[in-house]
Amino acid sequence: MINSFFDNWTNQLRKGVLELCILNDIRNRKMYGYEIVRRLRKIEGLIISEGTIYPILSRLKRQGLVKTYMQESPEGPPRKYYKLTQQGEDMIGRMNTYWQAITNQTDSIKKGKKHEELNRYRAKSPG
Amino acid sequence: MKNLTDTAQNRLDKYLSQARASLHTCTGVDADEVESDIRAHIETELEGIDEPVSLDNLEAVLERLGSPTQWVPEEENSWWRNMILRLRTGPEDWRLAYIAFGLFIVSFLVAKPPTWFAIVVSPVLILSGTAQGIFLLASFCVSRAALVVIANRDELGGRKWLIYPPLLFIYIPVAIVLFGWPTLLYKINNSVTEQRPELAEGLRVAAMGLWWIVLGLVFCIRPSLLRMIFRPFADKFKHKEAVLLMIIGLVLIILGIGGSALIYFQQTQSQ
Q1: To the nearest whole angstrom, how far is the Cα of B236 from the nearest Cα of chain A?
Q2: Does the distance separating the beta carbons of B37 and A57 come in below 8 Å?
Q3: B125 and B182 Cβ atoms separated by less than 8 Å
Q4: Which of A17, A60, B177, B259 could, after both became Cys, cross-link A65 (CB 3.0–4.6 A)?
Q5: Which residues pair with B4 in a beta bridge?
């Protein structure tokens, strides 16, 4: 029961974070699909199946947040590169602000809890 | 694409066809584009590996890519796709619920002519061994099995729409027979009513009341019995409800005998 709760929670969290990471990755520079996967696989626990990245990219494209173009590759067949659209730029700006606010507030709640526990401990301990 | 061994090629074909099947039902993505991305991904991963690529090398790449059924979130799939996935891969409680409802629907399709009024005759259909009765019984059994898996009624959610119809088709006639059999029998063997038809209604009510007192007593001693018979609808049945049943039974006896006695004395006085 506890494990299934944790799995469910991480699944839900991962989905949103994955989209945030992909858009931020593309924001910094143009990238092709495999390159995005290779970078994201370094973040432990973020990707369970590498194949999930491609449907997300396709959905982002359909929603007009990214666009693609083909470019010749010196190492093999032409590659499909992903780039943010203006709409995608605006969206990732909003997403980053939101994410920052959430993490700041979550951190402050966690720290506040620790302070409370410390104060309680100090109040109880003699001297 | 690189050359693969026959077994590796077969595995790749199967994997891509599985990917196509998963992606084509997802409304939010371009399935062909994703498939081509996956091909490109596999090709890039296999770069530097000697040809023909073996099954082991390919399998390592496919394992990292994961099962295509996991690529798309459940909420992005069409409803029928989710239904098939739940039937094929579980979870068990959903699978049983769909099977129960499927059997229930089949029970109507096999009926000749369609007996939509089967709700009142389902035990007869079952006992007489008709195809409709057999499917109804099967859907009822699977529904009960689903209830065992789900255990908590509050967790039923949308599954209740799949499980409840087969259950009700059996529960309603069973409840009618369990609580009303004195009235039914009285209709069959009505020697008293032939002699004194004016007393019939009162005696019928009294007989019903007497039976309800017996039932109330039994369920007061073993409330779990009723809960077990009518799961999940009687899950909250307790001693209090059993006592209430006995009180209603007592009231019915008083009303039935009192009414009959009143009619009897009025008739005797008028004679």
Answers
A1: 25
A2: yes
A3: no
A4: A60
A5: B53
